[in-house]
Amino acid sequence: MKIAVFSTKAYDRQFLEAANSPAQHELVFFEPRLSRNTAILAAGFPAVCVFVHDLVDAPTLKILASGGTRLIALRCAGFNNVDLQAAADLGIKVVRVPAYSPYGVAEHAVGLILSLNRKIHHAFNRVRESNFSLTGLLGFNLNGRTVGIIGTGKIGLILGQIMKGFGCKILAYDVYRNAELEQLGGKYVELPELFANSDIISLHCPLMPETHHLINAESIAQMKPKVMLINTSRGALIDTQAVIEGLKSRKIGFLGVDVYEQESDLFFEDLSGEIIQDDVFQRLTTFPNVLVTGHQAFFTEEALHNIAETTFANIADVEQGRSCPNELIYQPEVADKALVS
Ligand code: NAD
User: Fold this and answer.
1) For the stretch 4-23, what's the b/e string if a residue is b when 16 or more beta carbons lie within 10 angstroms of its beta carbon?
2) Is the pLDDT reported for residue 333 higher than 90?
3) Does the first or last residue of the chain, that is N or C, have fewer Cβ atoms within 10 Å of its Cβ?
4) Atom 19 (ligand 1): residue with closest C-alpha?
5) Do the Cβ atoms of 174 and 150 come closer than 8 Å?
6) How distant is the alpha carbon of residue 296 from its chain centre?
7) How far is CA 331 from CA 10, 57, 87, 89, 340, in A?
């Protein structure tokens, strides 16, 4: 099958080409993101392969459909960038890679927690400048602290398992309970209780209308003083302006984010030497107790291998008329979990 791969980086090409050797699909790699302006590049391609910042909205899908595209293969888990209703109306199937790096993302969240707590990002710079003073590097023991996990699917559960190993108490909130987390000793509570009792709050739920700006001025007001907030899920779960106010008032003691609401203008590109126009992002990076990484939580060798393998397995299912376990079916009024057939 002819497959147009958008938002291609060298590492995507390396792993996709390696996984394509049995099937020998005709892969054409495009560096630009998919949008209504670039969709014309996919004319004549039955399949299009996209990542998190490709905009697969209704106008883009119409252009793709008129060019003969019948399949969108997401090489990521989140699908908030795809208009599933428009795809269904146009007869375009959408498949995704639901679990390519749950350990990678959970471990990255732990990396943010440890770095912020023990101020490893500051220590790294100090020691390189022969400054061996400990002043300002005081941390706290994770043992005995309470971690609140919002969204206890694949990644949230693994974070719970890891933090349990540190000797933390686990509070959880999800619209569905995960029995494995409860067996671990995790306790499901309503959000206000989680906010009020957690020393560390980590977000692992999908971005949906119900979770948009889940962390806002009102929820921050309910949190413990000096709370640590971690977001490796999707940027718009957090109202960044409210978090900046929380950091300024010192209510929020630490912020670790791998995702940012307006990240599509910044992340995955080398903008060194450019003038960044996003004043909110620039303000965020001035705080000493804020650590931002550029959507790299998933970025492990294992993840890129799994993404490539699953993407071609999904494409093979659709090409050969089999039912694909990773197809996203548009079902209005149904919760996120039920969207996956
Ligand atoms: P998952 O589907 O296994 O788990 C998501 C959980 O969120 C589910 O248990 C679901 O019931 C729960 N949920 C749904 N609605 C909720 C709500 N309103 N409130 C609380 N919980 C709710 O997904 P996962 O693989 O654990 O991934 C979690 C998120 O991580 C994804 O949505 C994706 O956005 C993000 N992600 C980020 C990266 C990265 O590199 N930073 C990589 C992969 C995934």
Assistant:
1) bbbbbeeebeebbeebbeee
2) no
3) C
4) 174
5) yes
6) 9
7) 36, 17, 12, 12, 9
Would you tell me how many other CB atoms lie within 10 Å of the CB of residue 118? 15
Nearest atom of ligand 1 to the alpha carbon of 210:
18
Q: Tell the residue nearest (CA) to atom 34 of ligand 1.
A: 233
Question: What mean pLDDT is reported for the chain?
Answer: 95
Q: Is 214 in a helix, a strand, or coil?
A: coil
Tokens matching residue 123? 């220590």
Give me the pLDDT at residue 80, please: 87
* Catalytic residue positions, numbered: 234, 263, 295
The answer to whether the CB of 222 falls within 8 A of the CB of 193 is: no
Condensed to tens digits (0 to 9), the pLDDT of residues 185-198 reads 999 999 999 999 99
Please give the pLDDT value at position 341. 28
Whether the CB-CB separation of 97 and 307 falls below 8 Å is answered with yes
Q: Could you tell me the two tokens for 321?
A: 């008329």
Probe residue for ligand 1, chosen from 175, 267, 306 as the CB with the greatest number of ligand atoms within 8 Å: 175
Q: What percent of the chain has pLDDT over 70?
A: 97
> 336 pLDDT exceeds 60?
no
First to last CA, the chain: 24
Q: What is the distance in A from the centroid of ligand 1 to the CA of 308?
A: 21
Give me the pLDDT at residue 334, please.
Answer: 56
Kindly state if the Cβ of 206 falls inside 6 Å of ligand 1. yes
From 96, 155, 203, mutation site for ligand 1 pocket: most ligand atoms within 8 A of C-beta: 155
